Structure prediction request, 337 residues.
Amino acid sequence: MVKKFTTLYRHIIDEERKIPEATGQLSDLLYDIALACKVISLEVNRAGLIDILGFTGQENVQGEAVKKLDVYANEILTHVMRIGGHACAICSEEDENFIPFADQYFKQDILNKYIVHFDPLDGSSNIDANISIGTIFSIYRRVSKNGPATLEDCLQSGLRQVAAGYVVYGSSTIMVYTAGKGVHGFTLDPSVGEFLLSYENMKIPKKSKTYSINEGNFSKWNDGVKNYINFLKENDKETSRPYTSRYVGSLVADFHRNLLYGGIFLYPADEKNKNGKLRLMYEANPLSMIVEQAGGRATNGIKRIVEIQPTELHQRTPLLIGSEEDVLIAEKFLEQK
Prediction:
């Protein structure tokens, strides 16, 4: 039996054809992101063999400054977005301000209409330990009508995302994306250099037996969070407790596992991080779009993540995300704080 052989680009084009008014610009932009992530994947896989893990400021054998891998990933994504000609601005977790594109690559005649947000290398602190890391991205349409992009273009709620996704660099490199019509996953085949469809119409289980949280922060949480975690550890066969703890410390890796098998990931506010620690625009919004498209739920404990109106590029937020029933139960505990 011959299995279905679908590349990422073929899948994107097939989905585009279902939308009569589509121009193809979003399709090309998604493929540009995939191209950049292929390059990043190559460097991640070679990281233990070349001088790319050292501190910024070291020199390689050519006497050139060695850049840390997260800086390298940011530069690759920025460069590919610039020359691709489909984005009018990018916003990165690595850069203080957004970067508008208004140079020789800016095609005013077709009005580059997209804003791209990305976390170039989520979990980069785990690189040296060979733990899975990843790239997270989301895409918005610009709201300004002409000229260079504005801050207003970049500060839109997650409800206005037109696409979002992430790439996991692990035992294999996997790209997961949604354009609002389901969630699909692709595995990079290094022998042909293409992302091949491996997970179609992904759905997260409604309920799970797994939770992901950094319990080292237990003493800093409010009583609602503490009570919820203690609840998950109790013995109760009727509700499939106790739950199993699975925490990598790399958001992309924890989220991807839960998307496949079910689970809840929590990074609540605490005494040190009153507004939470994860970035709304670069991490919470894109993963929330994905999980909702897959049948899950994402909240800050009070409100849907995608309904939050951002006021700054690097805004932080608490995050509860994963299987719908698990998140709903967690929200009830947080109401008791």
User: Anything to note?
Assistant: Residues 25-46 form the longest helix (22 residues).
